[in-house]
Amino acid sequence: MGLQTKALGFVAVLGIYSCSNNKAESVVEPTVNYDSLVVSIMKKGFEELNADSIAVYVYSGTSPEQQWCTMYRKNGNQLNHSVIPVNSKFEPASLIKPYWASILVENDLVKLSDSIQYEAKSSFYDYVISDPFNMSFTYMTLAKAITYSSNTTMARFLFANASQPCVENELQKLIDPVSRSGMTLPWAAMGYGVLMPISDLLEFYYQVANRIETTKFSIGTLVQMDSLLSEVVKTGTAMNLYSQEFPINGKTATVQNSQSGPSEGRFIGYSPKDPSVVVMVRVFNPSPNFYGSITAGPIVEQVLRVALGVKTK
Fold first, then answer.
1. Could you tell me the pTM of the whole model?
2. How many Å apart are CA 197 and CA 178, to the nearest integer?
3. N or C: which end of the chain has fewer CB within 10 A?
């Protein structure tokens, strides 16, 4: 039984566990046979990206059998694997930006078309948040903040609504109250200083992809986010993935090297032609390029093709 048994409701999560981690919680041996094609995708990813490790998550529903998480790691010419729970928590980085935008839009706090004056660097208390480069906008809308993944604009939109109960409720779920400070919200807007279950992030994108109304998000908000994730690939940070033959909607994230861990490229996405599967890829310490669209994005596309039974490139 491989990834192509989607009709049976099965989904596997393949990945390569970061070499910087010493252990994983509740490790169990995988019980699934994986397509050789998927394994070849992973091997090719290592060869082209010169990465320490790569993690790939594939999600097709909320039940446990649809949220498998298997991890591979490179060991010479071999790929070794183990398993961690898909509900493990992580810092989502820029992948969280559409989630925050949905909170603001759903609660009528901000429209996607609302704009503020663009700043390449923004000060919050004694700290400065910056974009990786000056995006040459005079004003930037909330929609453009997602399309071009602006840290400063997203942080300022969220910070302006810090007193709103819906924002406060989300923060209480995502952060450790002991570590809370004035910078908590600006950092949280970029997905740092928060811990989110991987399964929760995947579920949110799955709801957007399939327009599944919930008590938190209406169809109207989900439709707007779906359109926005399409724009990320058509005109934004993931233009290299644009294809009329096999369209993908999704979001990029790039985590630059710091004392706390490796550089990391990320991409999460789905195909609007068949949104039954959402894939997230994390590429650790790739070189020389570590941007999520370049490193993780092409792997997402290839795994989606395999999962959906579409001819690979």
1. 0.87
2. 19
3. C
pLDDT at 242: 96
Degrees, nearest 5: CA angle 148-194-303: 55
Query: Which tokens hold the place of 249?
Result: 């909607």
254 burial class (0-12, 13-18, 19+ CB within 10 angstroms)? buried
pLDDT of residue 130: 95
Are the folds of 6-88+211-308 and 93-189 the same?
yes
Q: Using the 8-state DSSP alphabet, how is residue 67 labeled?
A: -
User: Where does 93-189 sit in CATH, by number?
Assistant: 3.40.710.10
Domain boundaries, the chain: 6-88+211-308, 93-189
CA distances from 238 to 188, 283, 292 (A): 22, 16, 8
CA distance 143 to 158: 13
> What is the second-level CATH architecture of the domain 6-88+211-308?
3-Layer(aba) Sandwich (3.40)
* Integer Cα distance of 151 and 71 in angstroms: 30
Other CB atoms closer than 10 Å to residue 305's CB: what's the count?
Answer: 18
Q: Residue 258: its pLDDT value, please?
A: 61
Exposed, middle or buried: residue 188 (CB in 10 Å: 0-12, 13-18, 19+)?
buried
Percent of the chain residues past pLDDT 90, beyond the cut: 59
State whether the Cα torsion 98-103-105-111 is positive or negative.
negative
Asked if 206 contacts 222 with a C-beta cutoff of 8 angstroms, the reply is: no
In DSSP terms, 130 is beta-bridged to 121
Rounded CA Rg of the chain: 19
